[in-house]
Prior knowledge:
Elements (H helix, E strand, L loop, with lengths): L2 E9 L4 H21 L6 E7 L2 E9 L6 E9 H4 L8 H9 L8 E5 L2 E10 L4 H5 L3 H5 L20 E8 L2 E2 L3 E2 L2 E4 L1 E2 L9 E2 L19 H19 L2 E2 L3 H8 L5 E7 L9 H12 L2 E4 L5 E10 L5 H26 L4 H7 L4 E3 L3 E2 H18 L4 H13 L7 H5 L6 H9 L4 H9 L14 H20 L13 H15 L5 H14 L13 H16 L6 H8 L6 H14 L5 H15 L18 H17 L4 H9 L2 H10 L7 H18 L12
Parallel strand pairs: 7-10
Antiparallel strand pairs: 1-3, 1-7, 2-3, 4-6, 5-6, 7-8, 9-10, 11-12, 13-15, 14-16, 15-16, 17-18
Amino acid sequence: MAHTFLLEIGLEEIPAHVVTPSSQQLVKKMMAFLEENRLDFDEIKAYSTPRRLALKVLGLADKQADIEEEAKGPAKKIALDAEGNWSKAAQGFSRGQGCTPDDIFFKELKGVEYAYVKKFIPGKSAKEVLSDVKDVVMDLKFPTMMRWSTNDFEYVRPIKWLVSLLDKEVVDFEILNVKAGRQTLGHRFLGKAIELTDANDYPAALEPQMVIADAKKRKEMIVSQINELAQQNNWQVVIDPELLEEVNNLVEYPTVFAGNFDQKYLMIPDAVLITSMKDHQRFFYVTDEAGNLLPNFISVRNGNQAHLENVIAGNEKVLTARLEDAAFFYEEDQKQTIADYVERLKKVMFHDKIGTIYEKMERVHLIAHYLGEKLGLSDQELADLDRASQIYKFDLVTGMVGEFSELQGVMGEIYARLQGENEAVCVAMREEYLPTSAEGELPQTNVGAVLSIADKIDSIQAFFSAGMLPSGSNDPYALRRQALGIVRIALAKGWALSTPLLQAAVEAAYAKRPDLYEKIAPAENKAMIQDFIADRLQQILNGPNLRHDVLEAVMANKANAFTLAQKAADLLAQHLTDEDFKENIEALTRASRLAKKLDDQSDLTVDTALFENEAEQGLYEAVEAVRKDFKAADLETKFIALKNLREPINAYFEKTMVMADDEKVKLNRLRQLAQIARLTAVFGALDALNTK
């Protein structure tokens, strides 16, 4: 007979962003618990609200599966004494297995006879197994933990009640004097406590108590009500998935309503209005068919329709106060020029171990110009980049950004446009901050992209030089995200950006203005920064379809451009199945390995007068033919050219002893092989590839 088990953890209100991952974690841990205890089930359904994490196990087996196994004991010569009687070892072994010596039989294993007993372990009942479900509840981990009262136990919020029902029967356990039972609580204000008769009554039994425990159903109710309001008023509503998730986890019984604000506030930039509604009040904003903002908003109440007009009025009042502040700052900010704001940045610290924001902008200005030239920006783009890099942090000292910190960069774009800046400069104000997350939007313009890269590499270099490196999960200055952003931007733009180029840009800035680097001189951190950024590239390249040895090979040469490493990984992965791949790679890597014996590789000039056989000459001519057009060729052409060296290389090794007694001849031969190794470096380290 299949059973249903209900587990509900009742809590004080959980932070909205914690609800969904905690619910998923509960299901995962319950699944692991049941599998570990050999208790079969069909499926687990999750339920969650701000005040509860719950699940139902459906199709639960009556009991564990019985186990019948053979237990191995001592060797026969130890199990029996000289007279053929059971030894103490045999008696102890059988007793430990819950058997008697009479149950012992012997089996041969690798030429030796051992004592065995057949061991039968009856499966525990479902109720007996579930009596340990307390461990599942207590094992949950949360981003923020708290203690309450005098308890040492930590949890996301205090536990208020526990429900543990196997069909109609309570499965007892207790956590901090809270005993599991069949009582659950309804809505905090609109519902009451109820006794659940059967686990299968959940979650339907909660609905009369104004609780929709099914998060998916609750979300569908919200979306349906929003769409209904939008249709009634001919509105367009942007339902942001993240906002919808957050709102859904703030309510137990959703009722959607609409409110208004004064039309005069529409003179405020849309970004400010949307931020005020969405980020600060968790409202959905409303537009007309043309996408223009309307003086309306949509929100969700945790409750029913009763006295809804009071709720609407209260929300309108709160939003109006917010918009009034925004209107004031918007007007006041425009009374000063960009130059005024930039001047104020001279007194604003970026970090006390690094310097001011103004000094950071000056460093970024130098770095950005260097990178812009190297990456091929046009004269106009370079001019725009120079201007943008000299002012791009000015909005940090505006009243609007002081009040709405999420709008840094966004307000920079708006204010720059109002003060007549070039459009490319204006857009760069906002794009410099991108991406704002690991997979966030990237800058689209060249000016914005270079400025973003320059700002990020300056931050990484500065914090590394100041000794503030990320460690473990601790990365307070988001340096990993910034490094990842650099790599993602370069790959998206197809730019030949590399860590040596980034380092060269920093060093060029340092050479021009050493006074900007008094506390953060770029001296000893080059290798660390290179590895740090390379790790982010590896993170991007590492995927299920890329063999580990290919990844290791392309990442071995950290000086390669990010785009080149990506293309090399793709190309090698494509050629892995070539019939001659193994032979080609082995020939090239044989040359590369020997080339490592050449200590000084600054001069790889080969003297043909020192050749002693035709194979040396043949390889020389083949390599020279490859080198001639190698730099300008695409990666596929380079790969074909290199694999065509297989025959000359093999012929060379058949007739040539590289490590000759004559030092001049030996060095000449090593230089010849080092030329090949240098050519293969475009693909990383080919000797890392598994060709076995």
